[in-house]
Known about the structure:
This protein is 38% helix and 22% strand. It is of the alpha/beta class. The strands form 4 sheets. It has a 6-stranded antiparallel β-barrel. It has a 5-stranded parallel sheet with strand order 2-1-3-4-5, with helices on both faces. A hairpin with a 6-residue loop joins β11 and β12.
Amino acid sequence: MIDLKTFEVWFITGSQDLYGEETLKKVAEHSQQISSGLGNAAQIPVRIIYKPVVKSTEEIYNTLQQANIAENCIGIITWMHTFSPAKMWIRGLSILKKPILHLHTQYNRDIPWSSIDMDFMNLNQSAHGDREFGFMVSRMRINRKVVVGHWQDPEVLNQIETWTRAAAGWYDWQGAKFARFGDNMRFVAVTDGDKVEAELKFGFSVNSYGIGDLVAVINAISDTEVNTLIDEYEATYTMAADLKKGGARHSSVFEAAKIELGMRKFLKDGGFKGFSDTFEDLHGMTQLPGIASQRLMAEGYGFAGEGDWKTAALVRAFKVMGAGLKGGNAFMEDYTYHFDPNNALVLGSHMLEVDASLADGKASLEVHPLGIGGKSDPARLVFNVASGPALNGAIVDMGNRFRFIVNEVEAVETVNDLPKLPVARVLWKPYPDMKTGCAAWIYAGGAHHTAYSQNLTAEHLQDFADMAGIELLRIGKDTRIDQFRNEIRWNDAAYK
């Protein structure tokens, strides 16, 4: 399980020595109370760590340098309680490698009309202290999130919560390793990309491993381990009698469980956070990993099919950002359309590998022919995905940059039986409508593979894109094709 409480965000307050000891004592007290209030807020999923008030170039530099190397620090929140001359921040900001949230708040919510005097004004002057700091961050062209409002305002807390989740996902990518079993699906463009540039830009590495290396691990799994896992299958999923122990088709489930155990061991021993495979490269394996990929994803691993390492990494980031929230995150693909003018829908699915964290009810473990890959019939979990707000995200390599595309959608209940489609599946309506949403996705160069989320919002992903320093295009309720195409043109010019 992914535990976001292992992560820290440092709360750093700026001031200066000009105000005297009593004022600075109050600044520290207020800062500690705000830091504690944020840390105790139910919606904040990480620990908020108070740091002593910084009042000089040296203190700022040392604190931000420590933030860079602190193992569990995923970002900093800055607040200027008083006026903190921003030239003091240049050295520190120039070395900072962690994301910034600038909280434009003040200790008191209301002006004390009958008692306000110049002492109060000198102490509580965030209104222009934060502007001084904001200028320097903008001058230095540093991406950050600015949140405005009183620190106890639920809307402010929700915005901070969103940013901390994005910061956790970004931190998790730094030094992450993703395994590519085999190579890219032959001749496919969008799933491929520059892995060297990705490591430079995103901090994770992608390397290929021969199927033979994986098969050797699978073959070393004992029958006792396999039978124990099958007991878990029978207790967790609906299974036909002929798939259970002693059944005529039990061997397919046995092989699937063995593959799962081997893949888990390979990934765990190698310290990987995700993987991809391809049905074109299965030498030595009895079947394409179906339930194995689904269950490993449900545990938090990133995954995508056909060698799509970018989507595998994105699924992992979604898993981290959404940890602890209701709903799931998984690999997805736009598969086919329902072009009814009165009820246009996208059918999302994949050959086998959509994880059951999205399921509406109990999943069924089934074995069916695949018709691709030339191997024996693979075991997979079959279910309908729950209805409700969701989104699809994809990162594509545009040659001179990575582009992040997000389409907000509304999943709907699957009311028709699909007796001959034994895969996990979901129906959704893309925003703002079918024609606009699909056209915008195609104009943007969006991939057919996506990371699908039931619990993240476009704000999470905008914060994440800002931390990565990449372009984000959002397709939502207010999208118009003419404006969207202009945004693409402007971005093309800006990113040159």
